Protein backbone atom coordinates (compact mmCIF):
# COMPACT_ATOMS: atom_id res chain seq x y z
CA UNK A 1 0.00 0.00 0.00
CA UNK A 2 1.58 3.26 -1.06
CA UNK A 3 1.46 6.19 1.31
CA UNK A 4 -0.64 8.32 -1.01
CA UNK A 5 -3.48 5.77 -1.13
CA UNK A 6 -4.60 6.59 2.39
CA UNK A 7 -6.71 9.66 3.14
CA UNK A 8 -5.28 12.48 5.25
CA UNK A 9 -8.69 13.56 6.54
CA UNK A 10 -11.97 12.12 7.70
CA UNK A 11 -14.76 12.24 10.23
CA UNK A 12 -18.12 13.96 10.10
CA UNK A 13 -19.23 17.53 10.72
CA UNK A 14 -22.31 16.10 12.44
CA UNK A 15 -20.18 14.65 15.24
CA UNK A 16 -20.35 16.22 18.69
CA UNK A 17 -16.55 16.38 18.60
CA UNK A 18 -14.25 19.20 17.54
CA UNK A 19 -11.96 19.32 14.52
CA UNK A 20 -8.59 17.81 15.35
CA UNK A 21 -5.20 17.77 13.66
CA UNK A 22 -2.91 14.75 13.94
CA UNK A 23 0.70 14.16 12.96
CA UNK A 24 2.03 10.87 11.60
CA UNK A 25 5.79 10.33 11.34
CA UNK A 26 7.29 7.16 9.88
CA UNK A 27 10.92 6.84 10.94
CA UNK A 28 12.73 4.51 8.53
CA UNK A 29 15.97 4.80 6.59
CA UNK A 30 14.78 2.43 3.86
CA UNK A 31 11.25 3.77 3.45
CA UNK A 32 12.51 7.35 3.33
CA UNK A 33 15.04 6.35 0.66
CA UNK A 34 12.30 4.77 -1.45
CA UNK A 35 13.66 1.24 -1.10
CA UNK A 36 10.15 0.12 -0.16
CA UNK A 37 6.75 1.75 0.29
CA UNK A 38 5.87 2.86 3.78
CA UNK A 39 3.09 0.64 5.12
CA UNK A 40 3.24 1.82 8.73
CA UNK A 41 2.11 5.43 8.33
CA UNK A 42 -0.87 4.37 6.20
CA UNK A 43 -1.82 1.82 8.89
CA UNK A 44 -2.08 4.67 11.39
CA UNK A 45 -4.12 6.78 8.95
CA UNK A 46 -6.38 3.79 8.36
CA UNK A 47 -6.95 3.55 12.11
CA UNK A 48 -7.92 7.23 12.24
CA UNK A 49 -10.34 6.68 9.33
CA UNK A 50 -12.01 3.80 11.12
CA UNK A 51 -11.90 5.00 14.73
CA UNK A 52 -12.41 8.78 14.70
CA UNK A 53 -15.97 10.01 14.32
CA UNK A 54 -15.27 13.74 14.65
CA UNK A 55 -13.59 15.71 11.88
CA UNK A 56 -9.83 15.28 11.60
CA UNK A 57 -6.94 16.14 9.33
CA UNK A 58 -3.45 14.66 9.37
CA UNK A 59 0.01 15.78 8.33
CA UNK A 60 2.26 12.89 7.36
CA UNK A 61 5.98 12.50 6.78
CA UNK A 62 8.49 9.71 6.16
CA UNK A 63 11.98 10.48 7.44
CA UNK A 64 15.25 8.59 8.09
CA UNK A 65 16.49 7.47 11.50
CA UNK A 66 18.31 10.72 12.26
CA UNK A 67 17.75 12.08 15.76
CA UNK A 68 18.01 15.82 14.91
CA UNK A 69 15.55 15.40 12.02
CA UNK A 70 13.10 13.44 14.17
CA UNK A 71 13.29 16.16 16.83
CA UNK A 72 12.75 18.93 14.28
CA UNK A 73 9.77 17.11 12.76
CA UNK A 74 8.12 16.56 16.13
CA UNK A 75 8.64 20.21 17.05
CA UNK A 76 7.20 21.36 13.75
CA UNK A 77 4.11 19.17 14.05
CA UNK A 78 3.45 20.31 17.64
CA UNK A 79 4.48 23.96 17.50
CA UNK A 80 3.82 25.06 13.91
CA UNK A 81 1.22 22.65 12.56
CA UNK A 82 -0.78 22.68 15.79
CA UNK A 83 -1.24 18.92 16.05
CA UNK A 84 -2.87 17.74 19.27
CA UNK A 85 -1.64 14.17 18.75
CA UNK A 86 1.58 13.13 17.03
CA UNK A 87 2.24 9.45 16.36
CA UNK A 88 5.60 8.02 15.33
CA UNK A 89 6.22 4.55 13.97
CA UNK A 90 9.58 2.84 13.81
CA UNK A 91 12.97 3.25 15.46
CA UNK A 92 12.04 2.04 18.95
CA UNK A 93 14.17 -1.11 19.21
CA UNK A 94 17.73 -1.70 20.49
CA UNK A 95 19.54 -1.36 17.12
CA UNK A 96 22.12 1.44 16.89
CA UNK A 97 19.96 3.45 14.45
CA UNK A 98 16.83 3.19 16.65
CA UNK A 99 16.70 6.66 18.19
CA UNK A 100 13.01 7.62 18.09
CA UNK A 101 12.53 7.38 21.90
CA UNK A 102 15.58 9.58 22.52
CA UNK A 103 14.29 12.17 20.06
CA UNK A 104 10.86 12.05 21.67
CA UNK A 105 12.27 12.55 25.16
CA UNK A 106 14.44 15.44 23.93
CA UNK A 107 11.44 17.46 22.71
CA UNK A 108 8.93 16.59 25.43
CA UNK A 109 8.43 18.74 28.52
CA UNK A 110 6.82 15.91 30.51
CA UNK A 111 6.84 12.18 29.94
CA UNK A 112 3.86 9.81 30.08
CA UNK A 113 5.49 6.47 30.99
CA UNK A 114 2.19 4.66 31.40
CA UNK A 115 1.72 4.51 27.64
CA UNK A 116 5.04 2.74 27.07
CA UNK A 117 4.20 0.27 29.80
CA UNK A 118 0.76 -0.42 28.36
CA UNK A 119 2.03 -0.84 24.79
CA UNK A 120 4.68 -3.34 25.83
CA UNK A 121 2.10 -5.27 27.85
CA UNK A 122 -0.19 -5.42 24.81
CA UNK A 123 2.59 -6.54 22.48
CA UNK A 124 3.81 -9.20 24.92
CA UNK A 125 0.53 -11.02 24.36
CA UNK A 126 1.68 -11.58 20.78
CA UNK A 127 5.50 -11.75 20.70
CA UNK A 128 8.14 -12.29 23.43
CA UNK A 129 10.48 -9.80 21.75
CA UNK A 130 8.12 -6.99 22.78
CA UNK A 131 10.40 -6.55 25.80
CA UNK A 132 12.99 -5.12 23.38
CA UNK A 133 10.73 -2.19 22.55
CA UNK A 134 11.62 1.19 24.05
CA UNK A 135 8.40 2.93 23.02
CA UNK A 136 7.53 5.96 25.06
CA UNK A 137 5.16 8.93 25.12
CA UNK A 138 5.31 12.50 26.31
CA UNK A 139 3.80 15.96 26.22
CA UNK A 140 4.96 19.01 24.32
CA UNK A 141 2.76 22.03 24.92
CA UNK A 142 -0.80 20.87 24.29
CA UNK A 143 0.25 17.87 22.21
CA UNK A 144 0.65 14.20 23.08
CA UNK A 145 3.48 12.39 21.27
CA UNK A 146 3.27 8.60 21.11
CA UNK A 147 5.79 6.07 19.75
CA UNK A 148 4.21 3.06 18.04
CA UNK A 149 5.86 -0.13 16.70
CA UNK A 150 7.12 -0.27 13.12
CA UNK A 151 5.03 -3.12 11.68
CA UNK A 152 1.43 -2.51 10.56
CA UNK A 153 0.08 -5.58 12.38
CA UNK A 154 1.75 -4.50 15.64
CA UNK A 155 0.54 -0.93 15.13
CA UNK A 156 -3.08 -2.01 14.99
CA UNK A 157 -2.74 -4.45 17.87
CA UNK A 158 -1.38 -1.59 19.95
CA UNK A 159 -3.24 1.56 18.96
CA UNK A 160 -6.66 -0.11 18.86
CA UNK A 161 -6.27 -0.78 22.58
CA UNK A 162 -4.16 2.12 23.85
CA UNK A 163 -6.30 4.79 22.13
CA UNK A 164 -9.09 4.23 24.66
CA UNK A 165 -7.52 6.80 27.01
CA UNK A 166 -6.04 9.18 24.45
CA UNK A 167 -9.13 11.41 23.79
CA UNK A 168 -9.35 12.12 27.53
CA UNK A 169 -5.63 12.92 27.66
CA UNK A 170 -5.92 15.36 24.76
CA UNK A 171 -8.98 16.96 26.34
CA UNK A 172 -7.11 17.44 29.64
CA UNK A 173 -4.36 19.20 27.64
CA UNK A 174 -7.08 21.70 26.59
CA UNK A 175 -7.17 20.18 23.13
CA UNK A 176 -10.17 19.22 20.97
CA UNK A 177 -12.94 16.86 22.00
CA UNK A 178 -12.38 13.73 19.93
CA UNK A 179 -15.39 11.49 19.39
CA UNK A 180 -14.66 7.88 18.47
CA UNK A 181 -16.62 5.17 16.71
CA UNK A 182 -17.48 2.86 19.60
CA UNK A 183 -17.45 -0.20 17.35
CA UNK A 184 -13.69 0.32 16.84
CA UNK A 185 -12.56 2.14 19.98
CA UNK A 186 -14.83 3.17 22.83
CA UNK A 187 -13.06 6.13 24.40
CA UNK A 188 -13.12 6.28 28.19
CA UNK A 189 -13.61 9.61 29.92
CA UNK A 190 -14.34 10.55 33.53
CA UNK A 191 -17.91 11.80 33.86
CA UNK A 192 -16.81 15.43 34.00
CA UNK A 193 -15.22 15.23 30.56
CA UNK A 194 -18.16 13.68 28.71
CA UNK A 195 -19.89 15.94 26.18
CA UNK A 196 -23.57 15.32 25.46
CA UNK A 197 -23.93 17.57 22.43
CA UNK A 198 -22.31 20.35 20.40
CA UNK A 199 -21.20 23.29 22.60
CA UNK A 200 -23.33 25.71 20.58
CA UNK A 201 -26.40 23.44 20.38
Fraction of residues in β-strands:
15-25%
Distance between the termini: 41 Å
Please tell me the overall pLDDT: 95
Count the strands? 7
Strand order of the largest sheet: 1-3-2-4-7-6-5
Structural class: alpha/beta
Number of helices: 7
> What is the CA-based Rg, rounded?
16 Å
Low-confidence stretches: 1-5
Please summarize the sheet with the most strands.
7 strands, mixed
The CATH topology is given as Molybdenum Cofactor Biosythetic Enzyme, Chain A
What order do the helices and strands follow? EEHHEHEHEHEEHH
CATH superfamily: MoaB/Mog-like domain
Based on the coordinates given, report the CATH architecture: 3-Layer(aba) Sandwich
Query: Which word captures the global form?
Result: globular
Organism: Coccomyxa subellipsoidea (strain C-169)
Pfam families: MoCF_biosynth
Keywords: ATP-binding, Molybdenum cofactor biosynthesis, Nucleotide-binding, Transferase
Protein name: Molybdopterin biosynthesis protein
Overview of the molecule:
By secondary structure, the protein is α/β, with parallel strands linked by helices. It has a single domain, classed as MoaB/Mog-like domain (Molybdenum Cofactor Biosythetic Enzyme, Chain A, 3-Layer(aba) Sandwich), CATH 3.40.980. Helix content is 34%, strand content 17%. It has 7 helices and 7 strands. The chain has a 7-stranded mixed sheet with strand order 1-3-2-4-7-6-5, with helices on both faces. Helix 5 packs across helix 6. The longest helix has 14 residues. It is globular, with a radius of gyration of 16 Å. Keywords: ATP-binding, Molybdenum cofactor biosynthesis, Nucleotide-binding, Transferase. It holds the Pfam family MoCF_biosynth. GO terms for molecular function: ATP binding; transferase activity. It comes from Coccomyxa subellipsoidea (strain C-169).
